[in-house]
Amino acid sequence: MGFKDKKFVKPSKASANEPSCHLYLGGLGTQMKTPREPLLELLRQFGELQCEDSDDDGIFMPEDRRFCFASFANVESACKAFDFFTNETSFPTINATKVDVKYAQRADDEPKRSPEPECTSLSEHVAVPGLAVINDFIAIEEEEALLQDLAHQSSLLWKESLSRRVQHYGFPFNYRTLMVDYAKPTPPIPASCATFTDRIAEAYQSSIAEGSLPVDSPPFQPLNQLTINEYWPGQGIASHVDTESCFGPVFFILNLQSDIVMTLTKSDPSGAPHDEETSTEEMGASAAPSSSGRVRKYLLLPARSLLVISGEARYLWAHGISPRKFDKVNGVLLPRQRRVSFTFRHVVPPGPIPTARLTSGDIETEHVVKVYDAIAVHWHHTRGKRKVHWQRVKDFLESLPSGCLVGDVGSGDGKYFGLRPDLVTIGCDRSIQLLQVSKEISHETFVCDAVALPFRSNTFDAVLCIAVLHHIATVDRRCALIRELLRIARDGADVFIQAWALEQDAKSKHVFNSQDTMVPWKLNKRFAVPPSAATSNGDAAGAAVAALGADASSTVPPTASTAGASTTPATGTTASQKKDEKESGDDVIVYERYCHVYKEGELEDLVNQVAGCIIVDSGWDHGNWFVQLRKVSDTRLDEHETGPTAKLPFRPLHKL
Which phi and psi angles does 326 have, rounded to 5°? Predict the structure, then answer.
């Protein structure tokens, strides 16, 4: 059935829109680290969940999957939830940007299917441009030698987080982000495999010359990444399109040890391949174009054959292996054996992020920039003047040689200025009021957006970015910020990034209920800064003095949370907040600061999407996650074209 202890079945095309009590929620699940309690809280807004016993809460999350199921007590509640997930585009309380929702059935309610698989003869007439199978690409002796080398390798090289075992060489692939991890060190392609790359290039050119592939096929590019998959009978891989923003236009699959039938599915007119199981009847009928435009091809890959996927087959057809123990070839049932596949790809540097997706949204403008402009004097009074430094940041700065030029991106009120008088530091921030209170003769500061720094490339000996990344509201802007930090650093320089952690220790005053959250700041009115006074005086401290005795609530409007469950982050609960709730609100103005707090491993995953660096250190420091990067020249990507416009880094489910 595809996963252990299965209670539900993935919806078929016929049942996906038929209302039932059960919902399939694609994009949420254990592999996506979806928080269970916030999801329960969200679902209960639409009605009572169906629980079979005391251990059942109405949600079923299969292990290591990117989907889950929810059961409601009645169809009406399920329909309300279905409409919600269909119409909304962001779900910050459950750490999701898109949910693929369908009606589902319980396994025991599903109509019984014929266990017999689809036959290759059903789709013999279906042509897939850009696809070629080269039989007997290697000899039996070469196959045995490859498998022997594989057997002698360390078991530590196998990754077993999926339903099958996987190895990566050259570049690792991250199944959480569905992107290449550029910054993670990985063994090179083994010599025993690398010897085949020249032969693959020759076979590709011959296929074009012989007409098996179109004459306008893309040119062959060096193969710098290898993924090895091991499949046992009953195992498979979901239908997918290899991520186009990090993999080149052609890739090659060497099939070893066992014949296999691969299913290729033409995308619907929207261009998005479907990653779902379908009924036997539907699959049989879809060998010809269906009403939705989908077509299927059942392709036999003999052992020792090489499959070439390029052009239309690369971008418009999804490919996958159904998880079963038999295949049907020309009417004959054939039992599967252990199968090993070697997929050779060309990894490209990530392409540019569209400018339109780098614009600061309302949530950053209203709940970050304007808030810090308003609370700058109070912030400096409670934070900067005390010069409280994070230990790992202090250690990083103290490790730098004397005379280093340091870029402090997001320098705020300048609390790290002067910690090392023998360093030359230039700071920048989006809040002009924070920079006003940080003014010191020996330090240059200016206003800018961290995703578009006005520094020359390769300028700084070290770069700091402390408590900035958790105020950036979109993944695209977070990736752009990291790219900018590396761009302005010289080759070999280190970049230190620190951001707030979801995981807090017992001493912390903060308990976050969601990764995207609003953190209140209680501003004493005597520190309130009227925007007009701050602008005219050019001095935030002077503006605060001018504001004393004024009606601060009228001169500095508090930024309230934006309404709407889909766009408004949840408010984090803090011990100090509970204390403040008991105090009179007459002397304070409450500002809501937007924060995205990072869960364990998320910061590393984000950094790994950026080429040209390695992670030299990472960890947790008193409620914060940190990473220390080193800018390096990645020779694996030299003279390679960049990928298409980046879609970083969390791809739709059908992208793999």
Answer: -135, 150
